[in-house]
UniProtKB/TrEMBL annotation:
BP terms from Gene Ontology: protein insertion into membrane; protein transport
Keyword Transport: yes
Keywords, in A-Z order: Cell membrane, Chaperone, Membrane, Protein transport, Transmembrane, Transmembrane helix, Transport
Topology versus the membrane: Multi-pass membrane protein
Domain Membrane insertase YidC/Oxa/ALB C-terminal: 40-251
Database matches in Pfam families: 60KD_IMP (PF02096)
CDD domains associated with the record: 5TM_YidC_Alb3 (cd20070)
GO cellular component: plasma membrane
Family designation: Belongs to the OXA1/ALB3/YidC family.
The protein's name: Membrane insertase YidC/Oxa/ALB C-terminal domain-containing protein
InterPro entries for this protein: YidC/ALB3/OXA1/COX18, YidC/Oxa/ALB_C, YidC_ALB_C
Main localization, broad class: membrane
GO MF entries: membrane insertase activity
Length: 276
């Protein structure tokens, strides 16, 4: 299959020095020192490490999206009330954002920060899994390998389980699709709870929590992953499952924080009554 090539100019340019080369070095380091010297396992571990590094920004993004969803009923009322006065509508909407301390850019900025890293991982996994790429390892790299073996699960010595990461794999494409379905189901579940709690019946919320997100995205993921090298299908599945786990942790954490606020507010309201 045709392969995207990371040229020498890409490796030595600012993007290469800042992202491609460091990511390649970490990947090969994991490949060398993880027992079994399996490039697929190295990809899984590197992907999880990247998601852990990005966790704070991901949490900020989800929290901001949740805050926006909470005030959506107020926004819908304002749009209906001032539908004939766009200027007043904008002013009232901005007032609601300010009163609830909601920053629209807070939900987008973390995602923008993640994009260059995700793009760099894509390029490295797509075109950097070759022995020629080892020329870009740092001079001080310990125990640099002579070549990269790109067969995933080769240590099993079981032919049906062994996958060439540079070629397409229907099994990893299906795995990526199922992973996307699981994450979509997690997102849909928590968004339904949030919409019910905040009476958010906006068209956008219904669309994002409906069949399109739950069923169509996984199918699209499967089709795209089937057209790409197996390394990217493995990366896609790993990052999606990791994000799903992170979502569960974040939503539980936010729910606990909100419950504490509710309990504290309730106690504050009950104290004057008790004193009387």
């Amino acid at each position: 299959m045709d392969r995207l090539v990371i040229t020498d100019a890409m490796w030595t340019g600012w993007m290469g020095k800042l992202l491609y080369v460091p990511l390649l070095n970490v990947l090969v380091l994991l490949y060398v020192y993880i027992p079994g010297s399996d490039l697929g396992i190295a990809i899984v571990v590197l992907t999880i490490l990247i998601r852990l590094v990005l966790y704070p920004s991901y949490k900020t993004s989800i929290k901001s999206q949740r805050d926006i969803q909470k005030i959506q009923p107020y926004i819908e009322k304002i749009k209906e009330q001032y539908k004939d006065d766009k200027k007043k509508q904008s002013e009232e909407v901005m007032r609601v954002y300010k009163e609830h301390n909601v920053n629209l850019f807070a939900s987008c900025l973390p995602l923008i920060i993640q994009l260059p890293i995700i793009f760099a991982l894509y390029r490295v996994f797509f075109a950097g899994l070759t022995t020629e790429s080892l020329a870009h390892l740092y001079s001080w790299f310990p125990n640099a390998p002579i070549e990269l073996h790109t067969t995933f699960l080769a240590f099993t010595n079981w032919q049906p389980a062994m996958i060439d990461l540079t070629e397409r794999s229907i099994f990893l494409a299906i795995f990526a699709g199922l992973s996307q379905f699981f994450q979509s189901w997690i997102t849909n579940r928590y968004q339904k709870k949030a919409r019910a709690a905040n009476s958010d019946n906006s068209v956008f919320s219904k669309m994002m929590g409906g069949p399109m997100m739950l069923y169509i995205f996984p199918v699209i993921t499967l089709v795209i992953a089937w057209t790409l090298p197996a390394a990217l299908g493995l990366y896609w599945a790993t990052t999606t499952l990791t994000m799903a786990v992170q979502q569960i942790i974040i939503y539980h954490s936010l729910a606990k924080q909100e419950q504490k606020v509710i309990e504290a507010t309730q106690r504050a309201e009950d104290e004057p009554e008790n004193q009387n």
